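Protein record

Derive tokens from sequence
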Amino acid sequence: MTDPVLRFTERGMYCPAADAYVDPWRPVPRAIITHAHSDHARPGMGSYLCTPLTAALVRHRLGDVPVQALPYGTPLRMGEATVSFHPAGHVPGSAQVRLEVAGQVWVVSGDYKLEADGVSEPFEPVRCHGFVTECTFGLPVFRWDPQAQVAAELNRWWAANAAAGRVSILGAYSLGKAQRLIAMLDPSIGPVLTHGAVEGTNAVLRGLGAFAPATEQITPEFDRARARGAMVVAPPAALGSAWARRLGPGSEAFASGWMRLRGIRRRRGAERGFVISDHADWDALLRAVAETGAEKIFPTHGYTEIFARHLKAEGYDATPVPTEFGGDDEAEAEAGA
């Protein structure tokens, strides 16, 4: 499939006018990156173009790679294309990519959500002719409760555990979800402790003034007795592990949009599942599509066929596009979205 602005290739979404790929899944000379999650910012690219915050996070993950930082809303001429980034609201630094070629404007959403979370830069709709949209949760069953409601549930669970002398261990993806949840916690209940993978990301964001809450990393020297009554935020892979068991008697929970599905809650075996996602739910996906004013919609990364079918019934020109996103560090992916 080709278009004056984008081609969907085996390496990823290619913009011939810019001679660059957006979130490629195989090594290419020039990569435009929407955000720093491992399924979108992969190793091996000749160069990376992304927002300043994402640039810092990419270097944290991938080392000293060639990264060019472009602030939100700043146009950059690349060949015959003009490229700019616009907030996606997914995680700190995440962006939609606007590509303009000969008067045609296409936007690649990357991952996004519309609800402002207090940590990520809030989503901004971008008018365009073609919109490549994720649809990770592109089914009507996926509708999220307001963040304030989830925060109240989360803090009640923590407070009950703390009153009983148990440690609370919350599984969440190390970039984005973990910081969002930490910012939702009531520090008057007890200390907030972190796994090293989470604290490493916290440190990068703090260094750029993008994250403020106080946390303490659990190191090998940490006095495990101090975990009693604390909240521990860790990658989902740490739940049920020897690392978690060493913290003493406790209760474990997942925080993910997938917790809306009972089968996944049962399979993961956690005591609690908090339904909260850094991706748009069904209603938000439809709203985002409408706000672009786009003539062509390309659902990708999720329930693409079902979502495209619904859009067609609503009068849109919608074509599903296969991609290789969704592999955020396999240990974290299923319960980390």
Summary: The chain is about 25% helix and 25% strand. Confidence is low (pLDDT under 50) at residues 327-336. The first strand starts at residue 7 and ends at 8.
